[in-house]
Amino acid sequence: MFIKIKHIFFKLFNVALVKFTIVMGQLTLNIIEQSEVKVIASSAFNFRVEIVYQLGKNDMNDIFEISKDLAEIFDNNFLLNENNINKYFNNKTLPFVARFKGEIIGYIIGVPIEKFESESWIRYDKNLGRNNTIYTYAFIMSKKYRKIGGYSKTLKRIYINWAKKKNFKYVTGHVKQGLAKKFSNKTEIVKIFKNWYHSNSVFEYYRREL
Q: CA 179 to CA 203: how far, in whole Å?
């Protein structure tokens, strides 16, 4: 009896292992070697901004490394890796990267708020379900380039302009308290969160009319 149960267990284990291997193989096959991008803006100083249609293996490590800065501000929920990267870099989102001398130095990702309908904070947004609001999921620039060259401002300006072209009426996001009002006089504070994602900092959920 014991031998029979043991035989069945190993048989089921091997079937599960084969299925897992097939799934992982499919995921690997879906990752292209070179990113598919379109250059939106460029300068004579080897700086350009690109919209990403499909992220390739060649750029993933840069993205993963920069996302560690977000984890320092929030927590590991904002770390990007092979398991979640396609959730944010796909044809339903607005992912832009800033590239300097061929290296990605920053990125900004916009996601329709409907993608967050399972999150508790989204219930404060009256536009949920209207398909008119883009949420800035992540906006990060490598520490080395944050205060030089105007790279951050250029990246954000292009992102906002493209959101308008996609017929979004509002952009929202979470930032540290006091920052949102600096964006535009059309910015309103929707909700204050006293401890956003265990950051031990007060964050505000803002809405900005485009």
A: 9
